[in-house]
Amino acid sequence: MRKIVGVVGVLAALAAGPVQARPLAAIKQDGTLRVGLTGDYAPYSLRLPDGSIKGADVTMADELARALGVKVEIVPTTWKTLKDDLLADRYDVAMGGVSVTPDRASVADFSVPVLTDGKRPIVRCGDKGRFVTIKDIDKPEVRVVVNPGGTNQRFADANFPHASVRVFPDNRAIFKEVAEGRADLMVTDGAEVDYQSRLHAGVLCPAAVPDTFDKADKAYWMTRDPALKAAVDAWLGKTLKSGAYQKALAKAAE
């Protein structure tokens, strides 16, 4: 009987749903804002070999914490575990180029958008005129590489059913797969395409597409608390109006 009760207790705990997230009052009482960053998506956030992390949203995390009167703690996460980590209360706010999607909005709050971006291919420079439409890419002989768990993989799964799509686990090294000829292209957000093209000048280039394949807002994603969202939106509105966010993004992209 004890065994049955124990199993029932576990099932009840699982059915109770996610861990209770911290509201703004608890964040201020604790004195620390926990910011989730993947550290693999320049120019938003990039973890360096020495373990330090840089990027526009590292700067913004510091500024947001300062505005709230607390210190910042950077919490490593991944695109695959982003949602689970938020629902498990491992961090309070996700930054670092998070796209606004209906499934994410159904479980937590987004800030006002920080920018609008869209998917574009990055290719070896000799192929920049070859892959300019989804139809050009969605062929069995075309090798597409994609990082796991985020909107890049969703886009590839939805749009390239005939292409050879390979999931590569490390978004920091994935562009070498294209540069060194093990893949033909990657489709990702325009800001990352432009950054990686500058980083690999003369080797990787944006494909000569007339426009992005889609449009999506980027925003900060946070635990569902009206006071926290109001505070983040108020700070972000001033930050966008002053141009501070745009300056941080431009500096990180250098």
From TrEMBL:
Signal peptide extent: 1-21
This protein's record includes keyword Iron-sulfur: no
Protein name: Amino acid ABC transporter
Keywords (A to Z) from UniProt: Signal
Organism: Methylobacterium indicum
Keyword Isomerase carried by entry: no
Source lineage: Bacteria, Pseudomonadati, Pseudomonadota, Alphaproteobacteria, Hyphomicrobiales
Domain Solute-binding protein family 3/N-terminal: 32-252
